[in-house]
Specification:
Chain lengths: 413, 393
């Protein structure tokens, strides 16, 4: 006996995949997402490697499958507070934060014209700002505005209430709690970029022109803060000399002891962004080893052939900033040339690693020494980057496998 | 060029303290964050490689270990926690043992029991000798020159010092050979290197400058350690200077015969005499630095204190013992009825000093003071000789 429903926690590419796969076999699936829209970090990518296609097309198909499925119930701004019970009989308490915008919203955007408060745009990794009432991103699903409770001044301001032609804003909305009875749980809460402020040698986030690889995705995206022009943050100058610094936090016993698995390919991919936007730009990649595994070797070779690309073996020791020009200088032991190299760039992209989001869990689960989920509890299955660093293709495969595990767990209940 | 490898080198170096060298994956972070590494003399990463691959010849002639002052930045920031700073320390110990012609350094660095037995043996022998040679001292008040005649101390000390200096000189010759022929610019086939005395004289400034200022140490990110070390050296120099000054003073006042053979009365300075105040200051400084190092090695907070080799402890114990027994002798001497205690602490003081010097002559702890400036000096001499001979550099 028990429930044969499956709960999927995390609405990124892994969670969506697991939910779709399980539901299309005929199981009831609850999909929870913390953000106000589905799609996770994949929505913030400009292109996938190695095919260089935009993530939105594949994502759109999956979102359509969710929309059309009678078996999936998804909740945004939802977080698990407590899990009790065991395989077949989990009781899950979920907290739903208020969006303050109802289904009546047509995303006309009138509200943002009157909203007086700004907030950091976390979708663009803090490279820009939005109003306190905002459309999370242009492909947001559900396609509705949301209000940032922290930034919004609430009813004492209330300008958006008058501006909304559809009466879609409800500033009185309260947080809710719901309880789900499920048979199995797929935990797919993904990853987060390693905290830049811990990298003291690289400026700890103080230098404007030292950005992270995830920010680079936004700079190259047409719906990003620069409209897809790769301009450096300090003065909007088009970059002509750019450095990619690999293993910024990864493969480092003082930070993330593991290889984050995707950063080499991500940087090689970002080299193609730069080459496309700025054909004359001089591009340097500083690495310990380039890890282009399996068939990705081919992509690596293609990128090498783009020309005007310096591959320098050596982990960057320090990065400093020029006070006046905001140019950034990189210091490294160039091992092939046998010299200590000091070179100045317009902008530096740090290949910050993947940190698992399994630090705080609402239940006890065994973890690997690196903090990733170890998949050993009956009825609860990890999927995607919460288990180990993975690229999108790997996450999708892992999520499909997790869906099968969950189905095996609840079948016949 | 052929490279000979010694597959056991990593294992050998482990005994000198390079236990982590095999963990290195050659990112080069250590070399670039090192404030002392330069284009011409790159370290520590290359040394991690030499140890891993067993490139013994590269290691033997290297001067870089003497250019490293163990600031610790490399170890602190090492992504593999491979402690490159400690590996450099181990290479210094290794080189010290290579330079030592007696082979005792090698034994003492790699065999803890041998090291401790040697120290204990020298200590006991000195103590016994002191009591064997003692005169008939009074016990109603302390008179050190009656306990152990001054001439014994001065004459014995001179002999002892000359012996150690001679041994050290032979070590320096071996170091000279390994650097001149083992590192930097290489002679081509058929070329031979002649180094005229004038070149040695001309480049002597390099040696003196680095010997006196220890300037490279001040380039470490953390300057406080340079200051502590500099003070420690000043303290040692005050002690050594005091001993030398006393001998010269006695010779001038009473002649060689009295000073070396008959023995004069022990001169005691009045309480506020500048020489005495200087001695007090030196005592405080050395005690402070020794205690600081002891605590540091227990706390293991700084990279330099995280891997204590047994010889590090031996050295601290000997320096600490020397200063403490010196202090005790001084205190007991001024207290009535403590004559026996004075003689005992003085004998122990002598035993500590002799052991410190004997052990110190074998360990990098003591000899690095001349090996460091010599390494820079020899490499200058070599370049200069190449230019003098018009050989291609």
């Amino acid at each position: 006996m028990g429930s044969n429903s499956i709960l999927v926690v995390g609405g990124g590419i892994s969670g969506i995949t697991a939910a779709v796969e399980a539901s299309e076999v005929g199981y009831e699936v609850f999909l929870l997402e913390k953000r106000p829209y589905l799609g996770g970090r994949v929505t913030q990518l400009n292109q996938y490697f190695p095919k260089l296609c935009p993530p939105n097309c594949g994502l759109e198909i999956n979102l359509k499958r969710i929309k059309n499925s009678p078996y999936i119930k998804f909740f945004t701004q939802a977080e698990v507070e407590e899990i009790t019970g065991q395989e077949g009989n989990f009781t899950v308490k979920v907290r739903l934060s208020p969006r303050f915008v109802t289904d009546k919203c047509t995303a006309c955007g009138k509200c943002t014209e009157v909203c007086p408060v700004e907030r950091t745009d976390e979708f663009n990794y803090a490279l820009g700002k939005t109003k306190a009432i905002y459309l999370p991103q242009i492909f947001a699903f559900p396609f509705k505005y949301a209000i940032d409770a922290q930034a919004c001044e609430g009813e004492k301001c209330g300008k958006c209430l008058a501006a909304c032609p559809y009466g879609a804003i409800d500033l009185k909305m309260q947080p809710e709690t719901m309880t789900l009875e499920v048979g199995a749980i797929i935990w797919a809460t993904g990853w987060q970029p390693y905290d830049l402020t811990k990298l003291e040698q690289y400026g700890a986030g103080r230098y404007k022109n030292v950005i992270t690889n995830v920010q680079m995705e936004r700079l190259a995206a047409t719906d990003g803060p620069t409209g897809g022009q790769i301009l450096r943050p300090s003065d909007g100058k088009a970059v002509s000399r750019i450095a990619f610094v690999q293993c910024a936090g990864s493969r480092d016993e003082n930070h993330l002891p593991f290889c984050s698995a995707v950063c080499c390919m991500a940087s090689l991919k970002q080299v193609t962004y730069v080459r496309e936007k700025h054909p004359d730009a001089e591009i340097s990649i500083f690495f310990i080893d380039i890890r282009a595994l399996g068939r990705h070797e081919d992509f690596f070779n293609r990128v090498k052939d783009l020309g005007n690309i310096n591959l320098i073996k050596g982990k960057v020791g320090t990065i400093t900033e020029d006070d006046a020009t905001k140019d950034v200088t990189v210091q490294v032991e160039d091992q092939e040339a046998g010299r200590l190299l000091t070179e100045t760039f317009d902008m530096v992209v740090l290949a910050t690693g993947m940190e698992p989001t399994s630090k705080h869990l609402p239940f006890e689960l065994p973890r690997t020494p690196d903090g990733f989920l170890a998949d050993t509890v009956p009825g609860i299955y990890g999927a995607g980057c919460v288990k180990r660093p993975l690229d999108v293709a790997g996450s999708v495969q892992d999520a499909t496998a997790a869906a099968l595990k969950a189905i095996q767990s609840v079948v016949g209940r | 060029m052929t490279v000979r490898v010694n597959p056991n080198l990593a294992r050998t170096l482990q005994k000198f303290g390079a236990e982590t060298a095999t963990q290195c994956f050659h990112c080069g972070n250590c070399t670039i964050v090192c404030p002392l590494s330069t284009d011409e003399n790159q370290f520590p990463r290359r040394f991690m490689r030499y140890v891993q691959l067993g490139m013994e010849d590269k290691l033997k002639g290297a001067i870089e270990p003497w250019l490293c002052y163990y600031c610790g930045d490399c170890s602190r920031l090492c992504p593999r926690q491979a402690s490159p700073g400690e590996v450099m320390m181990a290479t210094r110990r290794y080189l010290t043992s290579l330079y030592d012609w007696t082979g005792l350094t090698l034994k003492m660095y790699t065999n803890k029991s041998f090291e401790w037995l040697t120290a204990a043996g020298v200590f006991a022998a000195t103590l016994i000798l002191a009591f064997l040679l003692q005169g008939s001292p009074p016990y109603d008040h302390a008179d050190l020159s009656k306990f152990l005649p001054r001439s014994y101390v001065i004459f014995g000390g001179m002999l002892f010092g000359l012996g150690l200096a001679g041994a050290l000189f032979l070590n320096v010759l071996r170091m000279h050979k390994s650097i001149i022929y083992g590192t930097g610019i290489q002679l081509k086939y058929g070329e031979s290197l002649k180094i005229p005395l004038s070149v040695y004289v001309k480049e002597l400034g390099t040696f003196l400058y680095h010997f006196v200022t220890q300037n490279r140490y001040s380039q470490c990110t953390e300057r406080s350690r340079y200051i502590k070390h500099f003070l420690l050296v000043l303290g040692f120099l005050v002690f050594a200077g005091y001993a030398g000054f006393m001998v010269i003073a006695e010779v001038i006042k009473e002649g060689f015969r009295v000073a070396f053979i008959e023995g004069s009365a022990h001169a005691i300075f009045p309480a506020l005499h500048p020489v005495r105040l200087l001695e007090y200051a030196a005592t405080i400084v050395v005690l402070y630095v020794v205690i600081d190092a002891f605590l540091g090695r227990f706390a293991k907070k700084e990279p330099i204190h995280q891997h204590s080799h047994s010889t590090d402890w031996t050295f601290l114990v000997l320096v600490g013992g020397t200063v403490l027994t010196g202090l005790l002798t001084h205190i007991f001497r001024n207290i009535e009825g403590m004559a026996a205690a004075t003689y005992w602490s003085f004998a122990l003081h002598l035993a500590f000093i002799v052991t410190l010097f004997v052990m110190g002559a074998f360990f990098a702890k003591w000899t690095h003071a001349i090996y460091r400036p010599l390494a820079l000096y020899f490499i200058k001499v070599k370049e200069s000789a190449f230019r003098w001979q018009n050989l291609p550099i």
